[in-house]
Amino acid sequence: MFSNTMRGMSRILQTLRRKCHTRHRKKPKFGTRFLLDKSKVFSFNAWDDVEWDEEQEKEAQIKVQANSEVRFPPNVIERYENEADKYWDAFYDVHTNRFFKDRHWLFTEFPELAVGDTESKKILEIGCGVGNTIHPLLQQSKNPDLFVYGCDFSAKAIEILKEAPEYDNSRCNAFVLDATQEVWEVPFEDNSIDIVVLIFVLSAINPLKYKMEQNRELLLVVFL
């Protein structure tokens, strides 16, 4: 009887978790999320009709300033900068593909990424990691004319991505690239990409490297 009670409790908890977690909730598309009931303000990370007041903006600026303070000596900063690829490889050595979750919310926020069955599209993701964007893209569409390129600074991340059972050489090409370099060696022709994706990438790059010339326009295009 006790075991039956525990199984019943477990089912109730699973149901509550599904109802409460945003992953299990039908999400309105970008541009249609309006805060009509202020008691539900925490239902989503962002609302389309809510603007910060002066106090909130000031508080945000204070937090940004505090977060921007340099707390390491120059020699440590230089080491992390010069050996960044080694630190990213070490990160993926430890976490492999278990740290970040697949981004199935992409198609709600950016419906342009939901490629139709008759469309021909080439997508490039800069900073693809172990494929948390690439896998959902290929799973969402079985269109043989969809091809996804993915590049990352970490050779270990690319290795893990290519070893995944979802990786399909006929629909995807992942390669190592330092996106801050002025000259890129890439497996596609100029002006052949339809959509460029960058997620959590620019925040990991030294702002001094934003001043690159040849690839500036490409890096500033998050979604076309």
Automatic annotation (TrEMBL):
CDD domains recorded: AdoMet_MTases
Domain of life: Eukaryota
UniProt domain Methyltransferase type: residue ranges: 124-218
Keyword annotations from UniProtKB, A to Z: Methyltransferase, Transferase
SUPFAM superfamilies: S-adenosyl-L-methionine-dependent methyltransferases
Membrane-spanning residues: none
GO terms (BP aspect): methylation
A Gene Ontology molecular function term of the record: tRNA (cytidine-3-)-methyltransferase activity
PANTHER family assigned to the protein according to its UniProt record, in alphabetical order: METHYLTRANSFERASE-RELATED, TRNA N(3)-METHYLCYTIDINE METHYLTRANSFERASE METTL2
UniProt family annotation: Belongs to the methyltransferase superfamily. METL family.
This protein's name: Methyltransf 12 domain containing protein
